[in-house]
Specification:
single chain; 171 residues; mainly alpha; 3-stranded antiparallel sheet; 6 helices; 3 strands
Length: 171
C-alpha cells in the first residue's frame, strides 16, 4: 500500500447480530418490558386475591376454553406454546390445576403416546367467575400505565389490537 492508496474500510470483528441495538430500539424494548411487568403484577395480585389463580393458571384455563372445536383440550406441547412455558414448567402448572379439579389429562384416542389437557366444568365455572375480575384489573393496569408518557403509545397500541385467530393456540 502506498501513501496515496486509500485505507481499507474498517471491518467489525463482531457479526451484525452481535452489535448493540440502536438506543431507540433498546428503549422501546425496555418500555414494553416495563408495561408487561406492571400489567402482569397487577393481574397476579387481583386474581390471587379474588380467585386463588395465578396469571398463568388463568391464561391456561382461558386458552383451553376458547378451542374452536368445543373440545376444550390441547396436547401438552400446544399447552406449553400457548402459555409460553417450558415443558417441565407446563407439566407443573397442569398438575397444580389437575390437583384442584380444574383440568384433566386424557390419552389421545388415535395416538396412545399423546396426552390431551382438558378443562373441566369446575375449571370453566372458575374461569367465568374470574374473567370479569381479570378484565377489570387489565383495564385498571392499562389506565395506570397510560399516565406514564413513555408507556402511553404502547397502551394505545395494545388497545387497538384485535387478537388474530391463531392467538388461542394452534389446533
Amino acid at each position: 500500500m502506498t501513501a496515496t492508496d486509500p485505507a481499507p474500510a474498517p471491518t467489525s470483528a463482531l457479526p451484525t447480530s452481535a452489535l448493540p441495538a440502536p438506543p431507540g430500539l433498546a428503549q422501546g424494548w425496555c418500555a414494553l418490558s416495563l408495561l408487561h411487568g406492571r400489567i402482569e403484577a397487577h393481574l397476579e395480585r387481583v386474581l390471587q386475591a379474588g380467585h386463588e389463580l395465578s396469571v398463568r393458571e388463568y391464561s391456561l384455563l382461558d386458552v383451553l376454553s376458547r378451542q374452536l372445536d368445543g373440545g376444550r383440550h390441547l396436547q401438552m406441547k400446544q399447552v406449553a406454546d400457548a402459555v409460553v412455558l417450558s415443558q417441565s414448567a407446563t407439566t407443573r402448572l397442569v398438575t397444580r390445576l389437575e390437583d384442584r379439579g380444574l383440568l384433566e389429562r386424557v390419552l389421545c384416542p388415535t395416538d396412545r403416546r399423546g396426552i390431551y389437557t382438558n378443562v373441566t366444568e369446575a375449571g370453566l365455572a372458575l374461569l367465568e367467575r374470574a374473567r370479569p375480575t381479570h378484565d377489570a384489573a387489565l383495564r385498571e393496569a392499562l389506565d395506570e400505565a397510560a399516565r406514564n408518557p413513555e408507556l402511553t403509545p404502547l397502551v394505545r397500541a395494545v388497545e387497538s389490537l384485535t387478537a388474530p385467530a391463531s392467538a388461542s393456540a394452534p389446533r
